[in-house]
Design brief:
It comes from Paenibacillus sacheonensis. The protein has 828 residues and is of the alpha+beta class. It has 13 helices and 45 strands. A nine-stranded antiparallel beta sheet has the order 24-25-26-27-36-33-32-29-30. It has a six-stranded antiparallel beta sheet with strand order 23-22-28-35-34-31, with no helix packed on it.
Length: 828
């Protein structure tokens, strides 16, 4: 070690607000830790403290206002440095792209409002893996640098711990991986750790950062730490060991302009089990993310069209709940059982607040649609106690589509009808289906096929007794007979004994999609795994299958045909309802699982009949290609396995879409979607006695879709199909009334099929509207964008996987301009 080696000593207080304790304890510990840091600042004039997580500061502001003012003074002085401009240190694989955008939006704006600064350094030193789109998400949230620790050296070899990290769109952030842990409270003695890092810095030819301070349950830098630093500085010189900040470290590195490698990859893998633990919180996360976005879209429409006040405060509260629950030890499923009860309550509040906003908006819109008919003089329920229909005039049912493209989608209406027509009086296909109620003879509902414009609505007229017109008859209905489902596009045959999909025939090309039995429930042994899956790469220790199958026809068309397969393993029961719709080339599965296994995992297996297989999956606001080597991987709404049809050069594949599952593996051409695993709560290979509790015991529901395709997934509309599974239309029963709105309205038009508009919301500054879009297919796109209710139309060029945020001023005389994720003007 030479005296010229430069170590930047970062005073850090790693603090999990939830892990082996509940958030209330984390709340108290944050106050004590911040007080300790302020004490050190008084005692040691050279000390500087670094702290992330806007949520922590909000708690201090709420509960210790005097201390909050003291922190503000230290920030202004430059001795308390704000990093990590997100609401919390989240899991960095599981939140959606829009959730990462909101971490930056609410985190950075909080810091700017309260302290007059924003973080320049992204800071997730404890998160378990980092998705490959983060460089763009960080850059567009005002952060040029990134610090992480995991995956560590034994988990992922890097050319250097200091490098440029580049996402698919070309965005880069200067990134440093900690050479050691984020704490001085465990592992190598502090002074020895600093000397070791100095030797590493000598060898690498550039400075390193060394974090110090008691961590995990707070604490932060101690008097002992700071005295040890004094001793090191006395021995080697202050220039060798500098009390510093990540901001200073990266600024000095950039000024030195060293030659650094560029990494264009995700940063995986630390804890492979965290993407399948605690199914309930993961499903709640997915539902809350989408419901909030839907509520924002129609709240925006109701404000613009009808003057309904935009519910910004309640939606922000709901988003803050969701963002907090994305903390890596909550979202990663490795906390104590009580913590997940808290998460359940928090998600419940978020979902309810979103539901209230959505209901207010859609009902204000539906109540303002002109549904009056000349024959109606006054409202009356003389005909039926449940419906306002008079004569054979029908009852209006308004269907809202939250997605940024037109959809053709089956809609479930909770009344039994004899016919359905659209707003032009054209009969549409419908089917009587079983209701969720058992109320005498009133246990049937209606399913009808709706075509609804993008981010818009359409009125359908439902009739209690009027006979349907012949035009509503389907030429090629969906059918179910024995063990075979069929429509115009697919033929699905089940093995009557095992319940597996014996054949999935794509009738469009007369090719077999599967290379063996599909949708097979396989049971994996995971006794060797802790809750996190530490030290593991895969879960493939097969110990059994669900068997003893019962195959039963539930519905036989014409619009929808369904076969239910019930199978068992020990005391666990899986019911999969396989459905074909007449209009669709996808096989949808609604599943109910009663899981009674411990230290076991359930996967569903799908062998795809292709050669030279490749695997792609969705990551936040992007996608990634991964090796087909059987490793457990995180994914979002879809995965795809494609290759060449046997003996040909024709590309084909199978996409597997899900509504709340986040883990999978692909070995060769076989994809396995992870459904559930049942480790012990917060078990890091501890004592497994008869008092431990296991995760995910009991009932859960989920859905998935099998979408066979010819050619590459980008040309098969897979991204759109995945959104359609996750984002359902919203239906509102109406009555007869006059109104200012037509019976059909479009909310947005996006000309490129590769560009999705995911968020439409009021601007945070209150003036105008924010529209966020991203390129979904990994290829440049030119697109025209139009928001008719704002009378705005413009064009934009998207690079591959590029995220763009547009500010649409309320003043129509001002142009639409591109802003960053924090809704600030982008630098040219």
């Amino acid at each position: 070690m030479t005296k010229q080696a430069s170590i930047h000593l970062i005073g850090n207080a790693h603090l999990d607000p939830v892990w082996l304790w509940q958030w209330q304890e984390g709340y108290a510990e944050i106050k004590a830790t911040f007080r300790s840091a302020l004490d050190r600042l008084k005692e040691y004039p050279e000390f500087v403290f670094t702290r992330s997580c806007a949520a922590y500061y909000a708690w201090i502001e709420e509960n210790a206002p005097d201390m909050f003012e003291e922190i503000k003074a230290r920030v202004a002085e430059g001795r308390w440095v704000i990093v990590g401009g997100w609401w919390i240190q989240p899991d960095c694989n599981l939140p959606s792209g829009e959730s990462f955008a909101r971490h930056g939006l609410y985190g950075q704006r909080y810091f700017q409002e309260k302290f007059g600064v924003m973080a320049k350094v992204g800071y997730n030193v404890d998160s378990f893996g980092h998705n490959g789109m983060l460089p763009q998400l960080l850059k567009k949230s005002g952060m040029d640098y990134y610090v992480f620790m995991r995956p560590e050296k034994h988990e992922k070899e890097l050319e250097s711990n200091l490098f440029w990290w580049e996402s698919e769109d070309g965005s880069r952030v200067l990134t440093f991986r900690l050479s050691d842990n984020y704490s001085s409270s465990w592992g190598t003695p502090f002074a020895d750790k600093v000397r070791k890092h100095a030797n590493m810095a000598d060898a690498d030819g550039h400075a390193h950062m060394t974090f110090y301070g008691v961590g995990n349950h707070g604490g932060g830098p101690t008097i002992g730490n700071l005295e040890a630093i004094k001793e090191l500085q006395a021995e080697y010189g202050k220039e060798a060991f500098v009390i510093s900040t990540p901001n200073r470290y990266f600024a000095e590195i950039e000024a030195a302009r060293p030659e650094l490698p560029v990494l264009k990859d995700e940063l995986q893998m630390h804890a492979v089990g965290c993407y399948s633990t605690h199914s309930e919180s993961k499903e709640n996360n997915r539902r809350a993310e989408h419901r909030l976005l839907t509520a924002e879209k129609f709240s925006s429409a109701a404000t613009v069209l009808l003057g309904l006040p935009y519910p910004s405060a309640q939606l922000k509260t709901a988003w803050e709940n969701v963002l907090f629950n994305q903390f890596h030890d909550i979202m990663g499923g490795c906390s104590i059982r009580e913590a997940f009860q808290d998460a359940r309550e928090s998600y419940g509040e978020a979902l309810h607040l979103a539901a209230k906003a959505l209901n207010a908006a859609t009902q204000r819109i539906s109540w303002s649609i002109d549904t009056m008919k000349p024959e109606v003089k006054t409202l009356s329920k003389d005909k039926n106690w449940l419906s306002w229909e008079q004569g054979d005039l029908g009852t209006p049912f308004v269907v809202f589509n939250p997605l940024s493209w037109d959809v053709e989608v089956p809609v479930h209406a909770n009344r039994k009808m004899t016919g359905v027509e659209d707003d032009r009086g054209t009969a549409v296909p419908f089917q009587t289906v079983r209701a969720s109620r058992t109320n005498g003879q009133d246990n049937w509902d209606t399913l009808f096929l709706a075509e609804v414009p993008a981010m818009g609505y359409r009125v359908y007229w439902c009739y209690l007794s009027k006979e349907p017109a012949p035009a509503a008859t389907l030429e090629t209905p969906a059918t179910a007979e024995g063990s075979v489902l069929e429509n115009a596009f697919l033929r699905v045959e089940f093995n009557r004994h095992s319940g597996a999909v014996a054949s999935l025939l794509d009738k469009r090309t007369n090719t077999e999609v599967l290379g063996g039995p599909g949708a097979v429930p396989v049971v994996i042994d995971e006794h060797h795994s802790d809750t996190w899956g530490h030290g593991l790469h895969s879960y493939r220790d097969l110990i059994g299958y669900f068997a003893d199958a019962e195959v039963k026809v539930l519905e036989n068309g014409p619009l929808r045909a369904t076969i239910r397969v019930t199978s068992r393993y020990n005391d666990s029961v899986l019911r999969q309802e396989f459905t074909l719709h007449a209009h669709s080339a996808e096989l949808r599965v609604n599943a109910k699982l009663d899981w009674r296994e411990k230290h076991k995992m359930l996967k569903l297996s799908f062998p795809v009949a292709v050669e030279r297989p490749e695997s792609y999956s969705e990551i936040p606001y992007g996608f990634i290609r991964r090796d087909t080597d059987g490793k457990e991987m995180p994914g979002q709404q879809w995965i795809d396995v494609a290759g060449h049809a046997p003996g040909t050069e024709n590309v084909r594949g199978l996409a597997i879409l899900n509504n709340g599952k986040y883990a999978y593996d692909v070995l060769g051409g076989e994809a396995r979607m992870t459904i559930v695993r049942s480790p012990i709560y917060a078990d890091h290979y501890g004592e497994r006695d008869d008092r431990v509790e296991y995760m995910d015991q009991g009932q859960q529901e989920f859905a998935y879709v099998l979408a066979p395709h010819q050619g590459v997934w980008q040309d098969a509309g897979i991204v759109r199909k995945a959104y359609e599974l996750n984002v359902s239309p919203v239906g509102v029963w109406e009555t007869y009334h006059e109104g200012s709105l037509p019976q059909q309205q479009t909310g947005i038009r996006v000309s490129s099929a590769d560009v999705a508009a995911t968020a439409l919301k009021q601007a945070e500054d209150g003036d105008g509207w924010i529209l966020r879009c991203y390129e979904t297919a990994g290829r440049p796109a030119e697109t025209a964008l139009e928001v008719p209710m704002l009378n705005r139309r413009w064009s934009s060029s998207f690079g591959k996987c590029e995220i763009k945020t547009f500010h649409i001023p309320s003043d129509a005389g001002l142009p639409v301009r591109e802003v960053n994720l924090i809704e600030f003007e982008t630098a040219e």
